[in-house]
């Protein structure tokens, strides 16, 4: 049986040539290329992940497109996803078909996540493979090694602080030494004058030798006395030796201290160079010279990191509980704090910090709320903030953050969702999920008692509401049917939840991640994962090609959303992380240190 070939003729003559070549080709054994485990990313004997028929490209009768379609797809799988999506369709129609072949995208996804991982975790029907692969490639390029780089920067900063402390101690020593010399000189200037004719040699009182004021005068006088009367008493010589030994010891100690500071500076510089070299994968090998040479050759400097970190100025005076990127492109950040305020930040300006746009507040208010701001939600220009003062305040981002409305709940508001333009959902401490219409004066539409304890997290779409409670249950409610579809009992309670496509991801109070599928109103647990968090998972974001988590254990983690998740980076923070938000590749976190930090692509 002959090996399948791709016909590439543009006209009948070309087609005839292709048929003639196919007929004249000798019979060959079936190729075993596809059965090798490394060739197509599948184990021997495994079928291709999709049963779709491969498209048949058409082009010249020779060259790349004369190869079997599987080989063309294999070659294209090594190109960046962005190139396959945007460039190949402009080359020719045949190569453009590569981007339409789901088999090629599944092979690419398997190469990115690893052969042992399952991807996607949820249903495959209607899954957007090109977008997922593109996002995973960008995530890998940006975040791989970012945690190690951040750790090196923290260590470098700590070394610099150690050197500064050593230098400060040395300056203090020098100041004390100078102060002691000054006191000695003052005593010298104020010493009493010796009457003429009185020898200043010293005198002995009951076996104790009195030491004269000036050592030089003592030596001169001693020499004169020695010439006149012979050797000095032994006490005078011993006193001189003790003084000289003490002075020499002090000078030696100062030299040691100075040498220690110089060595610390040298070590700090050397370690800094090695850390930089480690970032360039050049730390192994012979030691670097002063000019950066290694065995006569130089190593090219490493490119700047793909991400830049912004630390927003101190706009809050208490812990930041929630953060939310709005506007669609990660250009504006909202932060809610225990200082009862909501701040809006402009991230579009260059530099290492953002700019405070507004602190939201209504007429007659000294702060945004009268209690802790605990949660934020947004849709289009509408921003909602929920507080411990049992209110939800609405703000118009299109009108410089003007107040748009006030909703009064009956308990502290712990979570919010805006599944539609004018529909607001609120989970409260009194075990209820409430539905509001933001357009009317009496906004409450329905209040649902779905749990037996406080509602901690909430997600929704146009039809379904999913809520998690401290009673360790997850409830799925059908808004259109007006009834509860499922109530799932867990062994822990969920604090954060994300719902996109047909997958639901959540983080619990034990540091575990949970994955569920949601199809046609049927909610199904899939897996739970230990990704290394040791405390509450306070924030989670999942998209087709990315997974971000943060925890009260002071870490932020970036993963590929496969089963099990492939962790690309772990960032360590100085305080617990209370929440995160991701939009257009920009990551913002809410910190227990009264600040907001942002990571975004370097501009």
From TrEMBL:
Q: Does the keyword Transmembrane apply?
A: no
User: Matching PROSITE patterns, A to Z?
Assistant: WD_REPEATS_1 (PS00678), WD_REPEATS_2 (PS50082), WD_REPEATS_REGION (PS50294)
What's the source species for this entry? Answer: Salmo salar (Atlantic salmon)
- Gene3D superfamilies associated with the record: YVTN repeat-like/Quinoprotein amine dehydrogenase
Question: Residue ranges under compositional bias (Pro residues)?
Answer: 44-56
- Sequence segments annotated as region (Disordered): 1-62, 153-175
What is this protein's record name?
A: F-box/WD repeat-containing protein 9
Recorded hits in InterPro entries, A to Z, give: ASTRA_WD_repeat, F-box-like_dom_sf, WD40/YVTN_repeat-like_dom_sf, WD40_PAC1, WD40_repeat_CS, WD40_repeat_dom_sf, WD40_rpt
| UniProt keyword list | Repeat, WD repeat
SUPFAM superfamilies to which the protein is assigned, alphabetical: F-box domain, WD40 repeat-like
- The domain of life for this entry's organism is Eukaryota
* Ranges for the WD repeats: 313-355, 366-397, 448-487
Quote the gene name from the UniProt entry: LOC106606535
């Amino acid at each position: 049986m002959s090996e399948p070939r791709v016909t590439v003729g543009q006209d009948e003559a070309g087609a005839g040539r292709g048929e003639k070549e196919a007929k004249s080709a000798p019979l060959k054994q079936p190729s075993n290329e596809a059965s090798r485990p490394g060739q197509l990313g599948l184990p021997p004997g495994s079928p291709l992940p999709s049963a779709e028929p491969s498209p048949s490209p058409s082009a010249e009768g020779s060259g790349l497109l004369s190869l079997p379609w599987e080989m063309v797809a294999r070659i294209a799988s090594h190109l960046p996803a962005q190139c396959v999506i945007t460039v190949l369709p402009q080359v020719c129609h045949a190569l453009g078909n590569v981007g339409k072949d789901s088999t090629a995208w599944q092979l690419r996804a398997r190469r990115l996540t690893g052969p042992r991982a399952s991807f996607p975790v949820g249903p495959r029907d209607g899954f957007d493979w090109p977008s997922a692969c593109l996002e995973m490639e960008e995530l890998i390029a940006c975040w791989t090694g970012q945690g190690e780089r951040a750790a090196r920067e923290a260590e470098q900063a700590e070394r610099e602080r150690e050197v500064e402390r050593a230098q400060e101690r040395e300056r203090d020593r020098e100041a004390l030494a100078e102060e002691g010399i000054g006191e000695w000189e003052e005593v010298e200037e104020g010493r009493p004058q010796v009457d003429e004719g009185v020898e200043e040699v010293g005198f002995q009182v009951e076996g104790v030798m009195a030491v004269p004021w000036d050592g030089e005068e003592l030596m001169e006088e001693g020499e004169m006395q020695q010439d006149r009367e012979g050797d000095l008493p032994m006490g005078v010589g011993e006193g001189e030796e003790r003084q000289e030994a003490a002075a020499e010891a002090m000078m030696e100690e100062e030299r040691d201290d100075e040498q220690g500071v110089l060595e610390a500076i040298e070590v700090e510089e050397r370690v800094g160079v090695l850390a930089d070299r480690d970032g360039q994968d050049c730390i192994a090998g012979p030691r670097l010279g002063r000019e950066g040479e290694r065995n006569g050759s130089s190593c090219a400097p490493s490119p700047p990191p793909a991400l830049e970190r912004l630390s927003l100025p101190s706009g809050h005076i208490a812990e930041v509980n929630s953060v939310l990127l709005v506007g669609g492109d990660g250009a504006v950040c909202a932060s809610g704090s225990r200082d009862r305020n909501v701040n809006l930040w402009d991230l579009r300006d260059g530099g290492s910090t953002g700019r405070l746009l507004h602190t939201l507040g209504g007429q007659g208010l000294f702060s945004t709320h009268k209690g802790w701001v605990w949660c934020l939600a947004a849709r289009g220009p509408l921003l909602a903030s929920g507080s411990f003062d049992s209110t939800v305040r609405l703000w118009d981002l299109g009108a410089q953050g003007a107040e748009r409305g006030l909703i009064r709940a009956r308990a502290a508001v712990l979570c919010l969702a805006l599944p539609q333009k004018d529909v607001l959902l609120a989970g409260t401490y009194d075990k209820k999920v409430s539905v509001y219409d933001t357009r009317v004066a009496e906004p409450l539409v329905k209040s649902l008692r779905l749990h037996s304890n406080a509602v901690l997290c909430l997600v929704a779409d146009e039809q379904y509401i999913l809520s998690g409670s401290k009673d360790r249950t997850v409830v799925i409610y059908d808004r259109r049917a007006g009834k509860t579809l499922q109530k799932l009992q867990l062994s822990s309670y969920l604090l954060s939840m994300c719902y996109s496509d047909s997958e639901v991801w959540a983080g619990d109070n034990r540091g575990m991640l949970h994955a569920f599928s949601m199809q046609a109103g049927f909610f199904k647990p899939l897996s739970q994962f230990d990704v290394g968090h040791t405390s509450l998972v306070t924030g989670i974001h999942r998209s087709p090609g990315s997974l971000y988590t943060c925890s009260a254990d002071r870490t932020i983690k970036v993963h590929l959303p496969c089963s099990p998740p492939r962790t690309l980076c772990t960032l360590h923070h100085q305080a617990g992380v209370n929440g995160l938000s991701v939009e257009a590749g920009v990551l913002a976190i809410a910190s227990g240190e009264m600040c907001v930090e942002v990571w975004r692509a370097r501009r």
